[in-house]
Design goal:
The complex is a heterodimer of chains A (121) and B (733). Chain A has one domain: Rossmann fold. Chain A is α/β, with parallel strands linked by helices and 121 residues long. In chain A, helix 1 links the parallel strand 1 and strand 2. Chain B has four domains: 223 residues, Rhopdopsin 7-helix transmembrane proteins, CATH 1.20.1070; 54 residues; 155 residues, GAF domain (Beta-Lactamase, 2-Layer Sandwich), CATH 3.30.450; 166 residues, Heat Shock Protein 90, CATH 3.30.565. Chain B contains 21 helices and 14 strands. The N and C termini of chain B lie far apart (120 Å). The chains are: A alpha/beta (121), B alpha+beta (733).
């Protein structure tokens, strides 16, 4: 079973995503900020990380940079899932070998599941 | 005893002649006339010495002969220099130089001959009288000297009628001195030496050269240089004062010593007191005499006007101009006082620009009534105080009283374009002469000239002031604009921040609705009724419209702020993008049974921002589908013009009414018929599409006929460097 880590500060969205992904038979882990994301990532070594950008304590970009320095996170597939349309942040994220950049509100939950399925094979 | 007196007199004369020569040289060392006069004075002084020595029999026979020979040797040099000096008035400089070159050698030759018996053979002393015996060539010698003198005189007389005023005066002096004294000197020395007694000979030889020298000096110095005259005047006055006090005092003392020898000290003190009392009175009288002699009213009008012009045009400073005018006019009229005052019309006050010797102490004390003065100087004519008195006889106000108190003799108006701006005040002449008609004429010209110059200066100052003010205003405005600009930038950033935060905050709950609705619509447990699912679909559609609106608003905000609206170009195949869009719109296309004719080439690749270009296609295709009646065609095509792709989306829809076509790309604008057909549109789609195409450096336009259809065209230049950042502010909408 593939492990997916959802790093998302909005509990409602996190809940919806994990519900859907659990339906799709993934092992779903959740973290509510970058710090928690790093701890969870190190512990569980997920196959895919769905990463929000704007978060309290540690934002997505900082977490992404830190995890790219670690052994577990250097090559992990990351999909940015955010509602921010800040192009600068996006291009900085893309520099850190992010697999995809998705604006949350533009996607149905089914579509997201389909995309993840495509990525994880 | 007589010899001693003769010696003293000779020394005095020599000193005077040398002094005049020195003064002339100091006056203008570079001028040929002055140099010639200096050398002439030198030779004349030397000649005087020899001339005296030769009649000084006490020195012995040998010395007498030697001195006479020296006298003869020097005489032609003196006469030559005198003649050359005279020529310098009548001949041009170049001719003068030739003259000096030609005459100097024959003259020296003749001079040297004086040491031989050819000219002067011998002299014997007979009963105290020196009898002089000429040699065989004497008459040639005499002839040469006489010729020099007569030619010089003739050249002066010929020049006289053509000379200017000043030169005329100079030449007049020389003609007087030259004709009288030089001919006398030459004749006496050459022909009358034996006939005259020794004493008469000496008197003539001392007095005549002095007259000659002085008249020549008069010509070059007295009528040219002010300050030398001033020095001479002062020296002369003090000299005369001392003489006239000492001589009577000496005589009185002499008598008092005989009459009251016991009270000599008391008498001396009384004489000293009287002398001291009389000093100022004497000084005044002698000044008057000196003025009369040294400061005559003769001046060269042309020279005054010339100097005035030069002074007036060389400065833009009113004070400097007034100072220069004062110097020039003082040189001509020698007034006891001169001043320039100007009227400041804004402050209604008089101000002193320049003042010499008038008792104009405080500017606020000046009671020049501007109204009265304007009336008096309606014509640009200077007025004498006498004339003024007559004019103001009916109402002698404080003005006249004040002018009299100041001892103003003549008032010259300074006017610019009929407006009185100032007054030039002149006191009485030093020489106590009255101002003549000619003086008034000159002053009238001066008045006009100063008026013009002042006007220039005032205009210049006004312009300068205006420029200064303007610069201040510009700086102020610039600062204001800068502040406003900063404020606008701050507001712009705040707005951008606001929009981005709001949209982010809006998107999150909207995403929540979208995803949970999605989860419900999955209907995994199959426990939802068809109606419930339908309602959920309605929620989903509304929610998606809301999300689209937020996205559009975000795009508009980015287009308008510009700096976040970056085009990231990358080459990509177009067809897959079109297929994605068609797939998204497939539902509507199918329901309406629209025929999509895709004429885009299979392998077409474009270099652009894929996401943004997709937005454009999405917008145009969804518009075409939305506004097309069922069963119509939609044609997608491209043609290449000037290495640039022009894409088109053609429909057979409702079209755009002609009256509304011009406003199609305006923000929030929706055509009436479109609004009826689809009331949910935001009116932002085409605005955003145009922003994107302009961002790529391309253009977007359309052709439309109502009820028949619309074709949208847009170009996307391939090269990124032709792209320009799109800013709505420049679009005039």
């Amino acid at each position: 079973m593939k492990k997916i880590l959802i790093v998302e500060d909005d509990k409602l969205l996190s809940k919806a995503l994990s519900a859907k992904l659990k339906e799709e038979k993934y092992e779903v882990l959740t973290a509510y900020n970058g710090e928690e994301g790093l701890t969870a990532g190190k512990k569980h070594k997920p196959d895919l990380i769905l990463l929000d950008l704007n978060m309290p304590k540690m934002d997505g970009l900082t977490m992404l940079r830190s995890m790219r320095e670690t052994t577990w996170g250097a090559d992990t597939t990351v999909v940015i899932l955010t509602n921010s349309s800040n192009k600068e942040k996006v291009s900085q994220a893309l520099n850190q070998y992010v697999f995809r950049y998705m604006v949350k509100s533009d996607w149905d939950i089914d579509q997201i599941a389909a995309e993840i399925k495509k990525i994880l094979g | 005893m007589f010899d001693l007196i003769n010696l003293i007199l000779t020394i005095i004369v020599i000193a005077l002649i040398l002094g005049l020569g020195w003064l002339a040289l100091r006056d203008n060392p570079n001028k040929l006339t002055n140099k010639l006069f200096f050398f002439f004075s030198l030779s004349l002084a030397l000649w005087e010495f020899f001339s005296f020595s030769e009649s000084w029999t006490a020195g012995g026979y040998q010395l007498m002969i030697f001195m006479t020979r020296l006298d003869f040797f020097l005489a032609p040099v003196v006469v030559l220099l005198a003649a050359l000096f005279v020529f310098s008035f009548s001949l041009r400089y170049k001719l003068m130089k030739t003259m000096i070159g030609t005459l100097i050698f024959p003259t020296l030759l003749v001079s040297i001959l004086s040491f031989f018996d050819a000219i002067f053979k011998d002299a014997v002393v007979n009963d105290g009288q020196v009898i002089f015996q000429p040699g065989p060539a004497f008459w040639y010698y005499a002839g040469l000297l006489l010729a020099y003198t007569l030619v010089g005189l003739a050249s002066l007389i010929l020049k006289y009628p053509h000379a200017s005023d000043l030169k005329k005066k100079q030449i007049g002096y020389i003609i007087f001195g030259f004709s009288f004294s030089s001919i006398a000197i030459v004749s006496i020395n050459l022909f009358l030496q034996n006939a005259l007694s020794n004493q008469w000979f000496r008197i003539c030889n001392l007095s005549l050269p002095l007259i000659l020298s002085f008249s020549m000096f008069q010509a070059i110095v007295l009528y040219n240089l002010m300050n030398i005259r001033l020095i001479m005047r002062r020296s002369l006055v003090y000299f005369l004062v001392i003489i006239s006090i000492l001589i009577p005092a000496g005589i009185w003392l002499y008598f008092l010593k005989m009459i009251v020898p016991d009270y000599l000290i008391v008498a001396s003190l009384i004489i000293l007191a009287l002398s001291l009392v009389s000093v100022s009175k004497l000084k005044k009288e002698y000044y008057y005499l000196a003025n009369k002699y040294f400061f005559s009213s003769l001046y060269d009008v042309r020279e005054i006007i010339y100097n005035l012009n030069k002074a007036l045009h060389s400065s833009l400073d009113t004070k400097q101009i007034c100072r220069a005018v004062a110097v020039i006019l003082s040189g001509a009229f020698h007034p006891q006082a001169i001043a320039t005052v100007v009227y400041d019309q804004e402050k209604e006050k008089w101000a002193i620009l320049h003042n010499e010797h008038f008792r104009l102490k405080k500017e606020k004390e000046m009671v020049f009534d501007y109204e009265i003065l304007t009336g008096l100087f309606r014509k640009n004519r200077p007025l004498l105080i006498r004339t003024l008195e007559q004019k103001l006889a009916a109402s002698p106000g404080p003005l006249l009283k004040y002018l009299k108190k100041l001892k103003v003799e003549i008032i010259v108006p300074i006017k610019t374009k009929n407006r009185l701006i100032g007054l030039l005040l002149l006191g009485a002449k030093e020489a106590r002469d009255n101002y003549t008609i000619n003086d008034l004429k000159v002053l009238m010209t001066v008045s006009t000239e100063i008026g013009l110059a002042m006007e220039n200066v005032l205009l210049y100052q006004k312009e300068k002031k205006f420029n200064y003010k303007l610069r201040g205003e510009i700086n102020k405005a610039t600062r204001q604009l800068q502040n406003q600009n900063q404020e606008l930038q701050r507001l712009d950033m705040a707005k951008d921040e606001f929009v981005s935060v709001v949209s982010h905050q809006l998107r999150t709950p909207l995403t929540g609705i979208r995803w949970f609705t999605g989860l419900l619509l999955d209907n995994k447990k199959k426990n939802l009724s068809a109606e419930q699912l339908d309602f959920l679909n309605q929620i989903d559609t509304s929610n998606k419209k809301m999300i689209q609106l937020v996205n559009d608003l975000l795009d508009v905000s980015h287009i308008e702020t510009g700096y976040k609206f970056k085009i990231v170009r990358k080459e990509f195949p177009l067809l897959p993008l079109i297929q994605e869009i068609l797939k998204e719109n497939v539902l509507l296309i199918k329901t309406k049974e629209l025929k999509i004719i895709n004429r885009l080439p299979q392998d077409l690749k474009i270099n652009a921002d894929r996401d943004k270009i997709k937005q454009v296609w999405q917008n145009l295709i969804s518009n075409a589908t939305a506004y097309s009646p069922s069963g119509k065609k939609i044609i997608l095509a491209v043609k290449t013009e000037n290495q640039q792709h022009i894409f088109s989306v053609q429909d057979e829809g409702i079209g755009v009414p002609k009256s509304q076509q011009a406003r199609m790309f305006e923000k929030f604008f929706r055509a009436k018929n479109a609004n009826l057909q689809n009331p949910n549109g935001t009116g932002l789609g085409l605005y955003i599409a145009r922003g994107i195409i302009h961002g790529h450096g391309g253009d977007i336009w359309f052709k439309s006929t109502e009820h028949k259809g619309t074709t949208f065209f847009f170009s996307v230049p391939g090269k990124s460097d032709s792209a320009r950042r799109y800013k709505l502010k420049n679009q005039n909408i």
